[in-house]
Amino acid sequence: MTKHHTKAPLPFFGQKRNFIKAFKDALDNIPADGAGWTIVDAFGGSGLLSHVAKHTKPAARVIYNDFDGYAERLRHIPDTNRLRQTLAVVLADYPRDRHLDKPTKARVVAAIQDFNGYKDLHCLRSWLLFSSNQAGTMAELLNKHMYNCIRRTDYPDADGYLKGLEIVSQPFQTLLPQYVDEPKTLLVLDPPYVSTLQGMYANKHYFGMVQFLQLMYMVRPPFVFFSSTRSEFMDYLGFLKQHRPQEWAVFDGIASVSLIAGVAKGLGYEDNMVFKF
């Protein structure tokens, strides 16, 4: 039997592992094993929601929109582990969680530049930067102040993680119109947060207010929508309820789950999962 993952095999900014139970509870609105249903994970990210959906509703058709190249990262786990081992040797005698001095950083940078395999920027960020500090490119990372946060063990292989999923890579503006008119199709929507830093995503296409409004135009039940107080989604729903009753009708009767999340010591925000069937 395929392993059921409760977190993404490799680091990914914004994976929804804390919402797995709530997401599975929402999926219970789909009868039995999901036969005859389609689940479209339109902003697939790490694929965790797609994986959970397929594990929970194995007969459903699950479409994972891998717009950030996560499947490619999974294919290169052996290289990622090899690079981790190389850097672990460089940092073996250096204190954990300490800022790297110039000579040590120079050795780390040289090891990364000389490495002859795949270089996973997400993993490198998690090993060398604290979570509140991000870098969108390799050049940006190598110019940052670095810390010894190297992972202590190799990543396990991810065999079966994407098993049974239909993997596509399309802008949501192209993907969603293919499915919004099908009543037995669940839209799973976890877009980048409007007005927040998006440089940590592999895909650099801008997601601003226009893109947000394009998405909202296509939302219809059944849907599961993820958001945060770092965006203005909940405020937008309040605006619709007060000023746009016809548009609010799509969301009238929604259920929601909220969790407090943190990115660093003393820094927190509220994550939301809103759904309607």
TrEMBL record:
InterPro entries from the UniProt entry: SAM-dependent_MTases_sf
Keyword Transferase included in the entry's annotation: yes
Gene source species: Neisseria musculi
Keyword annotations: Methyltransferase, Transferase
Any one of the GO BP annotations: methylation
Protein known as: D12 class N6 adenine-specific DNA methyltransferase
GO molecular function: methyltransferase activity
Taxonomic lineage: Bacteria, Pseudomonadati, Pseudomonadota, Betaproteobacteria, Neisseriales
SUPFAM superfamilies linked: S-adenosyl-L-methionine-dependent methyltransferases
